[in-house]
Amino acid sequence: MYDVVLLTLASERDAPGGCGSGGACCGGATGTDTGVKGADGAAAGTDPGGTPGAADRCATDRPRVPVLACADALTARGARVQTVTARSDAEIDAVLAQFDGPARPDGLTWPDSDGKTRLVVATASDGQLRAVLRRLVRRYAPPPSRRPADLRGDRTLPDLPPVAVLPLDPARGGTHRDLAAQLGLPRDPVAVAAAVLDGTPRRLDLLRNDGGSVTLDGALLGAADDAGRPLHWRARVEVDDAILTDGDEPLLACAIGNAGGYASLDDVTLLAAPDPTDGQVEVAVAVPVVVRSALGRKRVRLEVRRARGRAVSVLPREGKVPYLDDGVEGELTRKRSWWIEPGAWAVWVV
C-alpha cells in the first residue's frame, strides 16, 4: 500500500514573505519585479517578496475539513497518511525530499520514478499549487553545466513526480476557473483519494521563466483604472521568431496561456485554444486600432493578434506593467521570458 503525504500551505494567500522568499508559506500576493531574488532564486514579484506582517496574514494551521476528509478516505483504504502544514520553502523541500530517487553516478538529485509515496497538495488557489511545483523544479532541474545525457532534448528538467490536487474551496462561477476545474479534476475529497490510489498520471506542460518561477495556467499583463477602463502600455512581445508588437503601439492586454484561465478578458476572446498538453504556449495581444467610417467618423476597434510557439518574451518599453501569473500579482519592469517544458509535471486522474 502507498504512503501518502497530504501537504497544505499555511495560509489561503501568498502573503508577502511567503513561499519563494523563505518566510511564511501562503498562496496569492502582490510582488514587484525589481530583480531582487527570493530564497529560491526567483525574482520578487514572480512569487511573493518579503515585507513585514506576513505572520499576521497567515491563517490558522488547523487542517481544513476537506483535508481531514481526504485523510480519512485514504486511511480507510489502507494508505499510511502523513499530513503536513508547510510554513516555508524549507518545510516544502523537506516534504519533497521524500520523492528523491536513488543516488546517481553524476550526483544529481532526481525523482524516483518507481516510488511508492504519493503527494496530495491541498490548494486554496492556483498560486499555492504553483509554489509547490516551483520547489519541485528547484529541486530536480539540473544546472545547464551538468545537463545529463538521459534528459529529454526538449526539456531542462526530468519528469516531476505526479501531484494530486485537493481544492479547498468550491468551484467559482464566472469566466475565470481555477486549474482544477479546467482540467476536470475532482473536488470531492473522497474522489481525490481514489485518484491518488487508483489513478494514473496525466502529464501536462509547464512554463518556466527566467525570473526563476513557473506558470501552470497562464499570465495576463495589463491593468485598469479605478473605473475599470483598461490602461494603455507598451512592450515588445515575441513568440519564437514572430513579433506580435514591436513596442511602438499601445496595448490593452497580453495573455500568455498554457491553459485557459486567461483566455478571455471581459467579452473579448484573447486565446483561441490554449492546451496544456500540446507542447506550445499560446500568446495574444489586444491592440486598440483607430478606424474611420465612410463618413469620416473615428472609432476604436480592438485587434487581437495571436501566435503559438515554444517561448515568449515581453520587454516593457516604459514604466511598470502589472500582471497576474497563476493569480499572483506582480509588476514587470524588465524583459521576462517564458518557455514551455512539454509534459514536465503531472496530476493524478482516475
Helix content: 10-25%
* Number of E strands: 18
* Residue runs with pLDDT of under 50 for 5 or more positions: 12-60
Strand content: 25-35%
> Main β-sheet, in a few words?
6 strands, antiparallel
Task: Give the C-alpha Rg.
Answer: 21 Å
Shape: globular
Helix count, DSSP H or I runs of 4 or more residues: 6
Structural class, from secondary structure content? alpha+beta
Strands of the widest sheet, in order across it, are 6-5-18-15-8-9
Mean pLDDT: 86
N→C terminal distance = 17 Å
Secondary-structure element pattern, one letter each: EHHEHEHEHHEEEEEEEEEEEEEE
Question: Care to describe what's here?
Answer:
- Helices cover 15% and strands 33% of the residues.
- The chain is α+β, with helices and mostly antiparallel strands.
- The strands form four sheets. It has a six-stranded antiparallel β-sheet. Strands 14-13-10-7-16-17 form a six-stranded antiparallel β-sheet, with no helix packed on it.
- The radius of gyration is 21 Å and the shape is globular.
Please render the helix and strand layout as text.
Blueprint: E1 3-9, H1 54-57, H2 65-76, E2 80-86, H3 89-96, E3 117-123, H4 126-140, E4 163-167, H5 179-183, H6 189-198, E5 200-209, E6 214-215, E7 218-221, E8 235-239, E9 242-246, E10 253-257, E11 264-265, E12 268-269, E13 281-292, E14 298-309, E15 311-316, E16 321-325, E17 328-332, E18 336-349
Parallel strand pairs: 1-2, 1-3, 3-4
Antiparallel strand pairs: 5-6, 5-18, 7-10, 7-16, 8-9, 8-15, 10-13, 11-12, 13-14, 15-18, 16-17
Helix pairs in contact: 2-6, 3-4
